[in-house]
Each structure stands twice: as structure tokens, then as C-alpha cells.
Amino acid sequence: MAIYFEKETKTFFLEGKNISYIFGINFTGFPEHYYFGERIGRDELSYTYEANIGDSGEAAIPGEIHAGGKSYNVYRSEFSFYGNGEFRECSFQMMFKNGSRLNDFRYETHEILAEKPALAGLPSMRGGETLKLTLKDMNSEMRVHLFYTVYDDAAVVARHMEVENRTGEPVKILRAYSFALDVYGNNHDLLTIENAWAREGKPERTPIPHGFICVDEKSASSTRRHSPAFALLNKDTTEEHGAALGVNLIYSASFTLKAEVSSKGYTRLTGGINDFDFTWELPAGETFTTPEAVLAYSGEGVGGMSREYHDAYRAHLINPRFVKAHRPVVINSWEAVYFGCTPDRLLPIIDAVSGTGIDTFVLDDGWFGARRNDRAGLGDWVVSPEVFPEGLAPVIDYVHGAGMKFGIWFEPEMVNPDSDLFRAHPDWAISVPGTEPCVSRRQLVLDITRTDVRDYVVEAVSKILRENKIDYVKWDFNRALTENFSRALPAENQQEMHHRYALGLYDICQRLVGGFPNIFFEGCAGGGGRFDPAILYYFPQIWASDDTDAYMRTQIQYGTSLFYPLSAISCHTSICPNHQTSRTVPFKTRADIAHLGATGYELDTTKITPEELEEVKVQVAEYKEMEDLVLNGDLYRLENTFDSNYFAMQIVSKDKAKAHITAMRALCRPNDEHKRIFPRGLDKKAVYEVVNNEYDLCLRLSGAAIMNVGLVLPLKTADGKMPGDFRTFTFRITKVE
Ligand code: DGJ
Q1: Which residue of the set 476, 547, 549, 634 is catalytic?
Q2: Among 33, 133, 378, 424, which has the minimal tally of Cβ within 10 Å of its Cβ?
Q3: Set 137, 380, 471, 546: catalytic member
């Protein structure tokens, strides 16, 4: 990795693993984007300037009209601001005390830093050589600092911006996105991800017209409707081939991401904190820091881009203490007993799994206060004497005695109106005075922009963690924010609320994760309502969806894996008929699909047959055998159930010595096509053994044969029967020569 500044041409060359990101300071002092893609040399790229004033009617640069200057509207910007002829979506806008919103930022100075400075109050990628580029407003003493970080083991560029007010007077930020760049070409597709409860992670690919496409969240959660992620694709880019330029925000609240095609043949990508219903007062002398955006490039299609993100996040984002360590294989109480989590129901469930290899019991919702259903008790983090008359200790000791770890559920950001907490502090719940607050799942959101509320939350959760031997925490967040309002903020600061909520959340996470470094945290938000890199910074895995139906999970996990490594995606085997879809799929299928992530179980294990319990043993053993691939491997998505009757994912070890494939035929059809899947990422010259015990299959094939000829999905079971619907086929591939 290297960051290099060529003085003569005023060009910055940022070089990460296999990538170059290049921009220059043009003759007006404005940073212009040249290139982001496959690694190239340090060529002089200013020949790509088009000295073109722009269309008639477009303004030129102030003071430069006679100097051959061109309009801001045609600059290929690294940062952009409204005014002076810039009519595209800009990445920054502010208001001075006199109401003016006019800026004109130009290069002032830069520094190359060996290590990226931490972002104030925000999670970000760790480490990496960093360029800090400072631009000064020609109209004032405002500064913006653009940060770029590169890594030698990841094909990503991490970017954020800091806005510094040196004017001596307060100013108002109206928009402060994390990044902007104008990519050459006006004929791209945009890959975005649509989310809905129990249907998270649906990829959508669409051409970008002139004008712009925007995905956003206004709910102060990151993934209730859209994900803070998208990818710019060439028309011919596929899962395996072609250019894919990804963007992912390390942010958990209301965001926006935009792609805009201009008339000059460029596509502008920009985004960050959603500026809808957002302003930020920046007092004199203070600095505002945006969340970080992670830009990735791969020439190996969408799959290549995913692998770059997976490597980057495993190496530089997720807690290094846990990222590569064995993940708890849990038995979770939620779908087993829902709110009925009494010891007499739980202990038999724990007994049943003893000896299966399941190593962690997680006590989900319902253990505290008056929380016997979702109507009451949220916020009262005291063990319910009604449910656990002797406290949690006997259950925890029981779990530990069975050789398992103990996990517990919290929803720290919420309160039921019917709770002691709400009765004592009604003003701690978010609401606008004189109005009825919006209730969702019978709960309100705590105003964690306030320090007193944060202190309560941290202490209430810490007390339980201190007083009990807890190894694991599941952190839930079941509703969106509906009122963008804090009783603690003055009127002129109200539109800061959503961002302050994110900062409050990160403060709580930092204090709890930092205060209990041995506890493993899992994120959750009514399923996958807040699945983003910021949460992953604190919690190494996130519950991807409340939908545990294996068929739906093939889609949800497929979409989630576009940006996040399998080890980040929490997946459970549950009972059938499935509680969300009423679908019945084979027990083995449920486990095989759950094993393509941080696996676990979530069912009443006293209600399954002894044969199924025996199967659990085999399943967990199989998972443990493939766990190193889930934690560290390269992911190849081979088949996609959104488009076809098939699903297949393959994980390959970095040294290509070992691979695992799980494939599924959704509907079984008589006299069906002879379906093959085409593995990837193997060593062409090596010889591998390909094993599927269920189908008595053991082949010895070269990597080249496996990848080019493909593997056949059996049409009949080993004893000659039709396999039935939703049957999985797993292949263990081991290098033997
Ligand atoms: C929503 C989560 O996604 C579920 O797994 C479960 O924890 C419930 N909340 C509990 O209320």
C-alpha cells in the first residue's frame, strides 16, 4: 500500500491491494477524480481534462471565466458543493450566519499519515495509511478535510470528511456526506438491496438514468427498507466477471446513497448521513465528523467485490478478539418458548441438547421485569422474581454445569409505556410534547442522545452482566424511530436528533463492549433491521432475519453476503412447519443452510425425535469441520434462488486446499433437467476428493475438471427415491495431490 503525491502534476496516487485510486488538484485548486479501479501505474492522467466551459447558461468558476476555466458542473469531483454552477447532487452544503449557502472550496494543504486517526465518536475501519486533504473555502475560513485510507490486504478505500468551522461564528451544516466521486461512464447498472421484515437482503439491479437514483433510510435504523450499500456495475458485469465498484457506509442511522448520471458522461456516487430532516449547528472552533464510507473495487464481478469486503471487514473492522475465533453454536429460547421462558421449560431443552455439540444456551426475551408478553416490562432490566424466584444463578450454573456457555437477550434502547422505567421517567422516551407518540410493538424508544439516559442503560445492563456469569449478549432493537425529536435539545438543534441517536448508540456500545471484553455480543433488530458495518464493529455477528424458513434464508443470506462475510451472518435451524411461512423443509436442509453462517438452533428440543437429536450431533460436528471456512474462507455464490430453482454457495480456504459447497434444489420435479453447478476458486492443477456421504459420492477430480465440467446434483437419493422439495446437497472438497 502506498500514498504518493506527484508534486509537479499535483496528483495523488492511492494504492491498495490490487487497486489504484487517483485524483489531482486542477488548475483552480479543485480536487478532480481521475480513476478508481484495477491497479495501474503512476501515469500522468491530466490528459483526461476536457477544457469545456459547459453548456450555455452554466456558470464558470468565479474569477476563472477568462482563464479557460470550466463550470463546477463538469468537474469530476471528489467533493462538491452547491453554487457556482454545480447543479448535480453535491456532497456538502452549509449556511452562514447571514443566510448565504455559497462556498468555493479549493486545495490548501495535505498530509500523509502512517495510521488513520480515530473518527470522533464513530466506529471505522482500523489502521491503514491515510491521506488528509484540506480544502479551504475562498469565501470564508471554513475548512473541509477529506480522509482517504488504503490497505495492502484489502481492495478498499475508506473515506470520510471532517468539517471545521474556523469562521469565529456558528454555522449550520445542511448536508455533509461522507464521500463523492465522479466515475467515467453513463451506462452503468446500480445494484441495491431492498429490505423488509422477514424478507431482508433482496438484491435489485437497475439501469441508472439521467437524473439520480437514491436509496435511503429515514428511520434511524440502517436496514429497515434499504441497505447502506450499493454497487456500480458495468452492463456486462455478472456475479463472476466484470467491474464492480461497491460503497458501504459504516453507519446505523438515517442515511442516503445516490448515483447520478450527468450529461457529460460521468456517474456521480455520493452519500452519507441522510440530509432529509437533518441540519447540524457547528459552533465556532468545532469540527463535524461524518461516518466512514468503504469503497471497494473488483474486476471479478459482484462476487469479487463481496470477497474484497469480506476480507476488509475481517481484517480491519470486526473485533479482532472474536473475528476468527470459534463462534458459539447456540440453542436460543425464542422460537422454542417465546415469552414462556420459565426454568421448568428451559432446563429440559438444555438437557436435550447436552452432548450434541451445541455449546451456548441463549435466554431470549421474557426474563426480566413484568415482561410476560410484549406489552410490559421493557426497560426494567431486573430479573423477574416471578419467572426466576432464585434469580438467574441456578439456570446459569445448570448451563455451565452442562459444559455450555450462557447468553442473554437485551433490548437496551427501548421501553414499554407499561414499565417501572417509563413510570419513573416518562420524558426519557422519545416523543414530542403535546403529541401522542407513535407506539410500535407496544414500545417506545429511549432518547439515548441524553447522557442521563445512556448512563442508565449502561448501568442497568452492566449490573446484570456483573452480577451473573454471562458469556454472550444478544442485543435487539425492534422498532424504527418515528419522531425526529429530543426533549433535551433546543429547537434549533432538533434536526440533529437522528445522528445524535447514532452517536449515543455507539457510546453505549463502546462502554459495554469495552467494559465486558470477554462477552461475545450479537446484534439484532427485529431480525435484520440494523445490519451494517458500524454494528459489526462492535458485535462480530448479527441476526440476519426473523425469518428462519430455510428456503427464505437462501435468499436472505445470499443478499446479506453481498457485503458481509458469512461469519457475520447469524443463522438458526428452527422447527417445521416454520413459524414465519408454515413451510416444511427437511431437517437436514435447515441445518445445511444455517451452517452457511454463524450457526445455531432455535427450537424446542424436547419436541423433536430422538433421531433428530442424533442428527443434531452430526450436523454440529459437520459445522465444526467447516467452521474455519465460514470464518476465513472465500465465498463464491454459485446459484441464486431469486432467479432459479437452485441455490448454491461455496466456501474455499485461502490456500485452496479445502472447500465446502451447499446446494439446494427448491422444487423437485419428475424427469427433471440434469443440473450441474460450477464450483470456482480451486487450484486448477491440484487433484481433489469430492465427497457427499448422503449420496455415496466420492470422486477424484482435478480442480480444472471440477470447475469446468461441474458437479451434478443427484436426481434420486442413494436408495433410488425422488429427493423431494428443498433438498440440499453438500460437497466436501479436499485437495489430495
Ligand atoms: C426480535 C428478534 O429478532 C427475535 O429473535 C427475538 O429476539 C425477539 N425480537 C424477542 O422479542
Answers
A1: 476
A2: 424
A3: 546
